[in-house]
Amino acid sequence: MSISKLHYISQGNTPKEHLENIQQACQAGAELVQLRLKNISEKKVLKIAREAREITNHFQTRLIINDHYKIAKEVKADGVHLGKSDTCPTGARKYLYSWQIIGGTANSLEDCQSLIAKKVDYIGLGPFRFTKTKDNLSPVLGVNGYLSILEELKTDTPIIAIGGIELDDILDLMMTKVYGIAMSGTITKDFNLIPKINKFLNAPSTNEQVWEVE
User: Fold this and answer.
1) What is the secondary structure of the chain as a DSSP string?
2) Which value, to the nearest 10 degrees, does the dihedral of the CA atoms of residues 202, 130, 137, 152 take?
3) For residue 39, what pLDDT is reported?
4) Nearest to 187 by CA among 8, 22, 14
5) What's the CA angle centered on 141, arms 140 and 146, to 5 degrees?
6) Which residues have a Cβ under 8 Å from the Cβ of 211 and sit 6 or more positions away?
7) Cα separation of 57 and 208, whole Å?
8) Percentage of the chain modeled with pLDDT above 70
9) Which of 19, 32, 82, 119 is 20 to 30 A from 190 via CA?
């Protein structure tokens, strides 16, 4: 299964807002959304995940569930994203359907190497810069961080840049040869950016890209 180049990470002050934002992202052409709910009961996560699956099925958008791999299996999501303190990808792999994808979070070269050894399908590497959506943030990587890690890794595993990425950062990030990007706040503020970002990320890299924001 090929991995989408743009990942929208759900945001909202309430689970209902997360669902509304997922719906808007799907309507705007998101190919993949990640349901990321924190500090709510597993029962509630399951309920919201079922509703998110209905929305994404309607739009044929891929759905990734953050952390909760058992829920990802139950609602037949397209996969799960595991943080560093979550279940080991190897254990989750045994539990999930063979077609479900597993992503993992990395903050360093060593994290990436460890995840590649565990055969994850993609790696969310960050943070690019300071972001308020995450507590206990790891040191920020910036463009140079991605450059040095990717040069050392030389991997076929898709690396997705994440963490406070804004529109103006995309060109610089793509120059580092990351596979794609994950965005949350920037998209939540304006879902109409999704088609532009998709077009930009999927354009042949041989063309000189000029980023125009209308």
Assistant:
1) -PPPSEEEEP--SSHHHHHHHHHHHHHTT-SEEEE---SS-HHHHHHHHHHHHHHHHHHT-EEEEES-HHHHHHTT-SEEEE-TTS--HHHHHHHS-TT-EEEEEESSHHHHHHHHHTT-SEEEE--SS--TTSSSPPPP-HHHHHHHHHHHH--SS-EEE-SS--GGGHHHHHHTT-SEEEESHHHHH-TTHHHHHHHHHHS-TTSPP-----
2) 50
3) 93
4) 8
5) 160
6) 167, 168, 170, 171, 200
7) 35
8) 92
9) 82
Question: Are 181 and 6 a contacting pair, CB within 8 Å?
Answer: yes
Structure tokens at 211: 């980023």
pLDDT tens digits, 106-148: 999 999 999 999 999 999 999 999 876 666 667 899 999 999 9
> What distance in Å separates the CA atoms of residue 126 and residue 143, rounded to the nearest whole number?
10
If one counts every other C-beta atom within 10 angstroms of the C-beta of residue 108, the result is 14
Q: How many CB atoms lie within 10 A of CB 133?
A: 16
Confidence check: pLDDT of 213 > 50: no
Q: How far apart are CA 203 and CA 6, in angstroms?
A: 13
In the chain, the domains with their CATH numbers are 6-202 (3.20.20.70)
Contacting residues for 117 by C-beta, under 8 A, at least 6 apart: none
What pTM did the predictor assign? 0.92
pLDDT value at residue 207:
44
Residues 33, 63: contact at Cβ < 8 Å? yes
